[in-house]
Amino acid sequence: MVILLLLGMFSLFSLMAVGGAVTLIAEMHHFVVESHGWMSSAEFASLFAIAQAAPGPNVLVVSLIGWKVAGLAGAMAATVGMCGPSSVLSYHVARLWLRLHDSHWRRAIERALAPLTIGLVAGSAWLMSGAANEGRPTGWLLCALVTALAWRTSIHPLWLLAAGALAGVAGWV
How far apart are CA 26 and CA 121, in angstroms? Predict the structure, then answer.
């Protein structure tokens, strides 16, 4: 039953993931942590961190969630659910998109999707910051500092991650 629930829910997430799987982190968190209690917020944040640190697509977090919930079958169900429906939809939309090359509707949709994606990513960032910094004001301060640096400078994100790791090892966060 859990496998079917993972497959069904991640299939729905797949069709809403404008901008990638990371844009739905808040919904995934709500589904696996708050609704079903399959893991804690800290465990969820750890899985997200592992997925972001690993090379490859950001959809890896879905496989890790499925694995944590129901082992290999859960990982397969969550991954197929997250990748299958959106892949089929993308194929058909791409064919239509090419035909509507000069349409004003196409340009309007492209302009509308950018702020939507930004909002979803910002909401996910807020949720993950809350899960990772529960009761730690210094963690929130570090998140704010890294956000400002990433936004206003050209510092490579890996340097910011390394600085955050060093702050954690040093016990400042």
Answer: 9
Q: Nearest 5°: CA angle at 47, between 91 and 19?
A: 30
Which of 126, 133, 135, 130 has the alpha carbon at shortest distance from 167?
133
Six-digit token string for 97 = 């998109």
Summarize the chain as % helix, strand, coil (round to 5).
80, 0, 20
Strands (E), 20-118: none
Do the Cβ atoms of 120 and 19 come closer than 8 Å?
Answer: yes
23 DSSP 8-state letter: G
Measured CA distances, 59 to 21, 44, 142, 163 (Å): 5, 14, 26, 25
Ramachandran category for residue 65: left, alpha or beta (phi over 0 → left; psi -120 to 50 → alpha)? alpha
The helix (H) or strand (E) run that includes residue 128 is helix 104-132
The DSSP call for residue 48 is H
Q: What's the average model confidence in pLDDT over 12-26? A: 86
Q: What are phi and psi of 115, to 5 degrees?
A: -65, -30
User: The pTM is what?
Assistant: 0.67
Residue-wise pLDDT for 83-131, tens only, equals 999 999 989 989 988 888 888 988 898 889 889 888 888 888 888 888 8
Exposure class string for 119-152: b at 16+ Cβ within 10 A, else e:
ebeeebeebbbbbbbeeeeebeebbeebeeeeee
